[in-house]
Structures are given as C-alpha cells and as structure tokens.
Design goal:
Blueprint lengths: L1 H12 L2 H4 L7 H8 L21 H12 L3 E2 L3 E2 L3 E2 L9 H12 L2 H16 L10 H30 L1 E2 L2 E2 L6 H10 L3 E4 L4 E3 L1 H13 L11 H33 L7 H16 L1
Parallel strand pairs: 3-5
Antiparallel strand pairs: 1-2, 4-6, 6-7
Helix pairs in contact: 5-7, 6-7, 7-9, 8-10, 9-10
C-alpha cells in the first residue's frame, strides 16, 4: 500500500522535462572559448638583417667616382684632390685607372696644343723647326711630357712605393699655413697606411719624365740639361696645381658665389674656433 502511494512522486521526479536539461559546460570548453582562433594571431615578422659595412675598396671607389667629377672653373680637372683628410687609400688598379682617366682628359690634350703654340711663337726648342710639321712635333712632345708625368708619378711609382698620389686639401686656417701646405706636397705625401712621408713618387717621377723626354726631343735639346729642364717644369706645374686646388674654393665663393666644398670649409673653421675657445 505504501509503495503504491510513493510511485507517483518518483514518477514525477523523473519527468521528461528534467531529462531534457543540458549538462553544464566543462572547464576545458570554457577555456577553449576564450582563446582566439589561430588565424587571428598576428604573425611575427623576422628582424631586418644588419646592413653589411662597405669595404675599403668600395669606399675608395666612391671617392674616386666623386673626384673624377671635380674641375676648377668647370674646366681644369681636379681628379687628384681630396677634401677628406681621412680618405681611404686607393688600390693599385684605382691608382692606374685614375691616371689613365687624367691622361686622356680633353683638357690635358688641349693644353698640349696651347703650350706647343707658345713655344712655336717664341721659337723654343729650334730643333723642332718652324711650321706645321714642327708644331705637330712640339704638340706631341708636350703631350708625352704630360702622360709620362702622370703615369709614372701618379700611377707606377705610387703603386710600387704604396703612396697616395692625391692632394689632400687643408681648406682652413691661416693663409700662410695653407700656402706652405700646398707647396710641401711637391716633397711630401701620404703612405697608403695614412702616415706622412717623403714624396718619392713625385720627385723620382719628375726625374724619370725628364729622362724619357730625351727620346723624343731633338738632339740639340736632349741630354742632362733637357732632363733637368723637363723635371723642373713638371715640378713647377705640380706646385702651381696644388696652390690652385687649395685656394680655388675660396676664389669660387668670392667671385662666383658657389661653394665647391658644400660647407666643409665653414665646418672646419667653426671647429678651429671652438678648439681655440676651449684652450683659452
């Protein structure tokens, strides 16, 4: 009898409505729902590789390329002038290439015609004679003097002796100091290691150029006298060239209102002034 009375209660507790309730979500399901999908995770890009440092050869090549565009008054080549006192030394092939570029520059070819015309007018070196044939021989001799001087003094000997054939411009400081700096380059230069030393390349190159001139000058103008004469002329031309390279930017700024150094001289002057203020 008691069992019959309790049966409806048990049946009511197990009604279909109670059986249809879903189970509570597990902890793993909740954690998974909080994680973003894999496709939405931002990708990490690899760091940029470091830029490799340029070699000394590449730096020297950039310097030479820039120097080959340098001209005084837009005409006279200034390929052997460096505004950077700490310029990287040139390789043997770079020295040779710069010498060839300078030797065949139109200005150096044209100046040979001008020099020979002057010598023709004053009847210098009469062994060449006067007239078109003599003028042609004078022109050839003058141009050979230029080639010999450049190739021997700026290429062959600098390669053998590891010397830098360029003129390193000072560009700042008192004018007398700059004057002596320019003239001194006839007898001093930089070694490829950056140290200053006697300019054997220039001195021996001028003597060698003078000696070679005996091969194509008339017999009456050859010999020791011709060697010394040609050597002195080449040395004088080199000294004048150094002076022109040193002071040309000053002249350009004053008369042409153009600064070939792009402000480098003013920065050097400011550094000198600052150094003097510190010492005082």
């Amino acid at each position: 009898m008691v069992a019959l009375l309790l049966w409806p209660c048990r049946a009511h507790s197990q009604s279909p409505a109670d059986a249809s309730l879903p189970e509570a979500p597990t902890q793993q399901v909740l954690i998974a729902s909080l994680d973003p999908p894999l496709s939405q995770t931002p990708a990490m890009s690899p760091p940029d590789p470091p830029t490799p440092a340029k070699s000394d050869h590449d730096l020297a090549a950039e310097q030479v390329k820039r120097e080959e565009t340098q001209r005084v008054a837009g005409i006279l080549p200034a390929f052997y002038m460096s505004y950077n006192s700490d310029a990287v030394s040139l390789s043997p092939m770079q020295k040779l290439g710069l010498a060839v570029r300078s030797s065949f520059d139109p200005f150096n070819i044209g100046i040979a015609f001008v020099v020979s015309g002057w010598e023709e007018a004053v009847d210098n070196d009469p062994g060449f004679r006067w007239g078109p044939e003599g003028y042609g021989r004078r022109t050839g001799a003058a141009y050979l003097d230029t080639i010999n001087s450049i190739m021997i003094g700026n290429a062959f000997l600098p390669i053998l002796l590891h010397q830098d054939p360029r003129y390193f411009r000072l560009g700042h400081g008192p004018k007398p100091r700059r004057l002596l700096h320019a003239l001194a380059f006839a007898v001093i230069c930089k070694h490829d290691n950056g140290r200053w030393e006697p300019n054997y390349s220039n001195v021996l190159g001028n003597v060698a150029a003078g000696e070679l001139s005996n091969l194509y000058y008339p017999a009456g103008n050859s010999g020791l006298g011709q060697t010394i004469n040609t050597g002195l002329i080449v040395t004088a031309e080199g000294s004048f060239g150094s002076l022109l390279l040193e002071f040309w930017p000053d002249l350009s700024r004053r008369f042409l209102h153009q600064d070939p150094t792009n402000g480098a001289d003013f920065k050097a002057e400011a550094a000198d002034h600052a150094a003097k203020q510190v010492t005082h």
